[in-house]
Amino acid sequence: MDTKHRILDEALTLFSEKGYANVYVADIAERVGIKAPSLYKHYKNKQAIFDAIIEEMDRRFLEQAGALQINGADAAADADIYKTISEEQLIVLGKNLFLYFLHDDYTRRFRKMLTIEQFHDKKLADTYMKQYADDPLSYQGMLFGLMVAAGILHTDNVEIMTLHFYAPIYMLLTICDRDPEREQEALKTLDAHIRQFNALYARDEEKVETNKKAVIQKTKTKKKKED
Fold it and tell me: What span, in angstroms and rounded, lies between the C-alpha atoms of 192 and 76?
């Protein structure tokens, strides 16, 4: 790990242990093993370090999303994927994402820090809301809206549908943060939650299968033209 990334890693550890307001640039430099002037060659101040931590966390998530064969940021692109996967595949994907957020050390430390600091700093409270409420609800709202438009799911209130899906998952995450021994229980609950959600909003498995076949046929046709 180069110095630039070591600074982020040690800063995040200190923020999660002591709180953002109680950590100074000199503390971060000491933890990294460099002098403060050397740290300023990489980041102009503590806010710049914090901003870079968020960028790194987002980069890591998109990398993980790619490994799971989804976009993770573009709801329209992911809607095309979700239209073609079975309920069992959806559950596996949901569990993998849940486990990533629960166990990725970078993400876990950041969540711990924001959970504590949201009550002490308005700017960090806004960051907490953006990371764990506004952004996921916006992405999932667009995703579910597209799924409803495609006839895969059915509702006349996408906003409430989105809350029905996201809120229990975030609750399970906070439970496991506080009591890691409940992870297996949470995974079972997550499985049941996704199945009940699909039943509640009348997920059309036949249409999913039709979409999957259409994508396969389109891919074959494209390949023939390229050949």
Answer: 26
> Tens digits of per-residue pLDDT, 8-39?
999 999 999 998 989 999 999 999 999 999 99
Q: What is the dihedral of CA 54, 56, 59, 60, to 10 degrees?
A: -110
**Assessment of whether the complete model's pTM goes beyond 0.90:** no
Q: Which fold has domain 68-222?
A: Tetracycline Repressor; domain 2 (1.10.357)
Rounded Cα distance, 91 and 203, in Å: 13
The correct CATH number of 1-55 out of 3.40.640.10, 1.10.10.60, 3.40.718.10, 1.25.40.10 is 1.10.10.60
- The tens digit of pLDDT for each residue in 55-112 reads 999 999 999 999 999 999 999 999 999 888 889 999 999 999 999 999 998 899 999 8
Task: Count the residues in the chain.
Answer: 227
**53-58 own/partner pairs: CB under 8 Å, 24+ apart:** 53/8, 53/11, 53/12, 53/15, 53/110, 54/110, 54/127, 54/131, 56/5, 56/8, 56/106, 57/106, 57/107, 57/110
